[in-house]
Amino acid sequence: MVGRWENRVAVVTGGALGIGAAIVRAGAREGARVWALDVDEESGRKLAATAGDAVRFRRVDVTDEAAIARVTDEIVAESGAIDILVNCASRDSNADATTMTSEAWDALMALDLRAPWLMSRAVLPGMIARGGGAIVNIGSLHAIMTAEGAFPYGAAKAGLAGLTRSLALDMGPHGVRVNTVTPGWVLSERVAASFDGDDARRRAVEQTQPLRRMGTPDEIASVVVFVASDEASFVTGANWLVDGGLGARFA
Ligand SMILES: NC(=O)c1ccc[n+]([C@@H]2O[C@H](COP(=O)([O-])OP(=O)(O)OC[C@H]3O[C@@H](n4cnc5c(N)ncnc54)[C@H](O)[C@@H]3O)[C@@H](O)[C@H]2O)c1
Fold it and tell me: Are 62 and 13 in contact (CB under 8 A)?
């Protein structure tokens, strides 16, 4: 069977662990050469050692403009032109809006909003030259609704949704598609660790989910594979909710 990412070259930021790692594995299973970029060297090396020959890992801080230029040059030289970019690297935030420093604000925005643009800027000229490509930004329900104490993660993810729309419009004439995939609660290693053994809290979160469970990284990865594949060739500027129905809940 021919994979849906057959012969593609894909780059996944935040690809060492969690949802990003699931996307890396899924993309490789679908026939792509997949480069995982992440600051988590230990997880990245483990992934590269277990995910097969099609997967490469590089330790890259995606807020570092020069590092992005170096690694994208390396990828093109070694694997060929980049067909698919998945911007998944991110961290959440629970700052107090009255005391947060502007440095802390800038650091969060640098990762959650500026880095997806920097990565897009690095790969887009090649995609435009070849008349095709797909970018998938991993968003969050916080872009459209949020929770108390999550400042300013929602602002960053709302900005990312705006970035998707602008790029989709401006790059559409070049055949490049840009979409957001929006997870709800997903039981990545990070989220699992955040419960810190508090089973009651975890059950309470599960009870708010229409499906009465959190999602798995693989359930996000399968939608990302589809959205970036030719099966979704008329999908651009869209926001694909993969939230188990959580965004349908009123309160
Ligand atoms: N897990 C959820 O419930 C959930 C819900 C909504 C959205 N999301 C989004 O999904 C994505 C992945 O989430 P996850 O739960 O797998 O989290 P995660 O923390 O496991 O993944 C984020 C990855 O980004 C990497 N990273 C952090 N800073 C980096 C940097 N400067 N350069 C390169 N890599 C960096 C981390 O090392 C990590 O591997 C994120 O964009 C997150 O906002 C997750």
Answer: yes
Would you state the structure tokens that stand for residue 99, as one six-digit string?
Answer: 């005391």
Q: Which residues line ligand 1 at a C-beta cut-off of 6 Å?
A: 13-14, 16-20, 37-40, 61-63, 88-91, 111, 138, 140, 183, 185-186, 188-191
Query: What are the phi and psi torsion angles at 212 (to 5°)?
Result: 60, 30
Q: How many CB atoms lie within 10 A of CB 125?
A: 9
The model's pLDDT over 148-171, given as tens digits with 9 standing for 90+, comes to 999 999 999 999 999 999 999 999
- Rounded to two decimals, the pTM is 0.98
Q: How far apart are CA 125 and CA 249, in angstroms?
A: 41
Q: How many alpha carbons lie under 13 Å from residue 193 in its C-beta half-sphere?
A: 5
CA distances from 67 to 55, 79, 123, 219 (A): 19, 18, 14, 31
